[in-house]
């Protein structure tokens, strides 16, 4: 796995958080995992409770996504043993998903498995609720999630595929937990992002298409070069 894939996976997680089927539901999920009424989120004294309660929820959807990453890496490694061919296939698929994310190609966005959420709530398990959230959100965040799974499928081992999806989950978890810590201010920022989601959608789709083209034409190392230059500009010793 190229280390240049790590920031891509993290940004993909952030982008997934902003999806229309995720962002509007954040207050409801924060309320469900913390047992704090939605209209009391952001009040003094509730932030710590919400953040602590969010940890098992985050763990739940992380386990789901990491399992997908392991599966993608195993399938990718067995179906296509030629790494060069695998990267070309991955590049083509990334371009398709990028176009779908921009709305230029059809993609199903209907949520499924709502009963899983109710079941998890009934059992009082925050971990299961996190897993149910991942299953329900998957169709809507499909283009982004599938793109990261394609990258995971092009890695050299299941461990690397799991690590890549772990980073993706981290990108999804960070804004979720931050929303619980500073709910009032965070919601103001998220509303602005929601109102500009079309621009974010186009930009995210273009990134996916660019990554796909780099993979397909065997130029992914270009991204690595620019990352090294950026790290050098920051005064950080490049690790790759």
| Content of β-strand | under 5%
**Sheet with the most strands, sense and barrel status:** none
Number of strands: 0
Summed up, the helix count is 11
* Number of individual domains: 1
Structural class by sheet pairing and helices = mainly alpha
Radius of gyration: 18 Å
Measure the end-to-end span. Answer: 11 Å
Order of helices and strands: HHHHHHHHHHH
In short:
With 240 residues, this protein is mostly helical. Helices cover 75% and strands 0% of the residues.
Would you mind describing this structure in some detail?
This protein has 240 residues and is mainly alpha-helical. The protein has one domain. 75% of the residues lie in helices and 0% in strands. The chain has 11 helices and no strands. The protein has helices spanning 5-17, 26-34, 47-79, 83-101, 114-123, 126-137, 142-153, 158-181, 183-195, 197-216, 221-234. Helix 4 (83-101) packs antiparallel against helix 7 (142-153). The radius of gyration is 18 Å and the shape is globular. It starts with a helix and ends in a 6-residue tail after the last helix.
């Amino acid at each position: 796995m190229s280390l240049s894939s790590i920031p891509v996976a993290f940004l993909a997680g952030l982008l997934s958080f902003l999806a229309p089927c995720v962002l509007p539901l954040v207050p409801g999920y924060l309320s469900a995992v913390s047992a704090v009424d939605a209209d009391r989120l952001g009040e003094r004294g509730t932030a710590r409770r919400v953040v602590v309660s969010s940890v098992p929820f985050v763990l739940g959807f992380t386990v789901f996504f990491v399992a997908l990453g392991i599966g993608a890496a195993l399938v990718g490694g067995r179906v296509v043993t030629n790494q060069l061919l695998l990267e070309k296939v991955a590049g083509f698929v990334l371009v398709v998903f990028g176009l779908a994310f921009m709305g230029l190609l059809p993609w199903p966005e209907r949520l499924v498995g709502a009963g899983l959420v109710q079941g998890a709530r009934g059992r009082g398990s925050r971990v299961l609720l996190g897993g149910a959230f991942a299953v329900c959100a998957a169709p809507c965040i499909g283009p982004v999630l599938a793109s990261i799974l394609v990258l995971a499928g092009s890695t050299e081992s299941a461990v690397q595929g799991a690590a890549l999806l772990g980073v993706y989950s981290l990108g999804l978890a960070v804004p979720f937990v931050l929303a619980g810590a500073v709910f009032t201010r965070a919601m103001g920022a998220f509303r602005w992002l929601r109102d500009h989601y079309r621009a974010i959608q186009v930009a995210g789709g273009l990134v996916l298409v660019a990554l796909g083209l780099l993979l397909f034409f065997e130029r992914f190392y270009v991204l690595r070069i620019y990352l090294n230059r950026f790290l050098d500009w920051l005064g950080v010793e490049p690790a790759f």
